[in-house]
Design a protein that fits this description.
Blueprint lengths: L21 H4 L2 H6 L5 H5 L6 H13 L6 H4 L10 H6 L28 E2 L5 E5 L29 H10 L5 E5 L8 H12 L6 E5 L2 H4 L6 H10 L2 E5 L9 H12 L4 E6 L8 H13 L2 E7 L14 H11 L10 E5 L6 E3 L5 E4 L3 E5 L5 E5 L19
Parallel strand pairs: 2-3, 3-4, 4-5, 5-6, 6-7, 7-8
Antiparallel strand pairs: 1-2, 8-9, 10-11, 11-12
Helix pairs in contact: 8-10
This protein binds pyridoxal-5'-phosphate.
Length: 393
């Protein structure tokens, strides 16, 4: 059945937590304190499948279970295949190790000059500022170091990383990620941003965060004031399905935008969640309405126990083809594979070019119509004598 959505509806409200005072509900620290982190807590609100129960039992050895009440409300508890549910509730397939899977599938540790910093590209670094998240995506690329379920012993130490950035003038772009940087206190975040701003060669600061999606209450006016003060700061959020685009997320994005934070989105292509052109189209349209520009669509990283989320690359290409030309150019993300072992993000594109010779390029458009563009210029008549007039000095 093709996915259709109610384009006027933005889900909102306290859902299962009607009894909680609104002041608590809107308080991000309340949301964090009241996260669902055990099978017992989940089962108070929903019936888990046997498969999910097995997954939950295993979770504490791999990647902790945590879901904010706000995000839990988005789950369709009657549907075991709910796209929100599959992102945050563990399943038994997490225990299966498949060929090619690694705990550090992107070879980040090998590109780490100091703990918490990944320097893979010439001019920019990835700065992992915390090991905590508001909720845990079951396909997390950094499950080895977030939530500490694997005794990875990662303790972010900012000073060493800041000194490395200060000492490397080639670094013009710093991407704060983690874990989720927005779980740091305002004070810590302000300190980090002010230190980075003080480094002359750092031109560009950005944050990768799923907090607006898991915990939109965190996007407070005080936080936005910090972005205003130390901006420009760009932000990539992480939305995978149109149902995550609630009124609360929309409002959080508005607060960020009004504070001068340009917003992008990174989605992961996930089996049974968003591996469908209609779902993806609904998602990117919602994003644009929230002032968010789709940035990347990721092919799943080869993390341990992630094979059940993996989608055939040909399906990903089909989705991109279904967007390009058929809808707003701003709505089309770049599909990428982050190369296993650490080669960086590589674009994977549908092939519109049929041939290129010295004479012409032959290509097709979004409707499959073929076009020719000449590469050789052939004047249709002999060139006229050049008419040069030189004005007297
Ligand atoms: C994704 C990533 C970046 C940023 O890549 P862009 O394509 O510039 O968004 C930088 N460093 C590392 C290690 C990354 O994984």
């Amino acid at each position: 059945m093709p996915y259709t959505e109610d384009r006027s509806a933005w889900f909102e409200g306290q859902g299962l937590w009607q009894h909680v005072p609104e002041s608590d509900w809107l308080d991000w620290t309340w949301q964090l304190k009241n996260r669902l982190t055990t099978v017992e807590q989940l089962e108070r609100h929903m019936e888990l499948t046997a498969d999910e129960k097995a997954g939950c039992a295993f979770a504490n050895h791999k990647l902790a279970l945590a879901i904010t009440p706000y995000f839990f409300n988005l789950i369709d508890r009657a549907d075991p295949n709910c796209p929100i549910r599959q992102q945050v509730i563990p399943r038994s397939a997490e225990m299966i190790l498949s060929e090619g899977e690694e705990t550090d599938s992107l070879g980040e540790d090998a590109h780490s000059p100091v703990p918490g910093l990944v320097h893979r590209y010439p001019d920019r670094v990835l700065f992992l500022v915390t090991d905590r998240c508001a909720a845990y995506c079951r396909y997390c690329t950094r499950s080895r170091l977030v939530s500490n379920a694997q005794d990875y012993n990662f303790h972010p130490e900012h000073e060493q990383a800041l000194r490395y950035i200060e000492a490397h003038p080639e670094i013009r772009d710093v991407l704060l990620s983690g874990g989720d940087p927005l779980l740091l206190s305002d004070k810590k975040l302000e300190h980090l941003l002010s230190r980075l701003r003080a480094i002359k060669h750092v031109e560009f600061i950005r944050i990768g965060s799923r907090i607006p999606v898991f915990l939109p209450q965190r996007i407070t006016p005080a936080l936005c004031d910090i972005f205003k003060k130390y901006g420009p700061v760009w932000m990539s959020i992480h939305v995978n399905h149109p149902r995550e685009c609630t009124a609360e997320l929309r409002d959080a994005c508005e607060r960020l935008s009004f504070a001068g934070v340009p917003l992008g989105n990174q989605s992961v292509l996930l089996r049974g969640i968003n591996d469908d052109a209609d779902v993806m189209k609904a998602l990117v349209h919602r994003l644009l309405r929230m002032r968010v520009r789709p940035y990347y669509l990721y092919q799943m990283d080869l993390i341990t126990g992630g094979a059940h989320f993996k989608v055939d690359v040909r399906k990903g290409l089909e989705i991109i083809e279904a967007l390009r030309g058929h809808t707003t150019g701003y709505a089309v993300p770049q599909y990428v594979i982050d190369a296993p072992g650490g080669g960086g993000k590589v674009p994977i594109n549908p092939d519109y070019v049929e041939s290129i010779t010295d004479d012409e390029i032959v290509f097709r458009n979004y409707e499959g119509k073929r076009f020719h563009y000449p590469l050789k210029t052939r004047p249709l008549q002999p060139a006229a004598e050049p008419q040069v007039t030189v004005s007297p000095a």
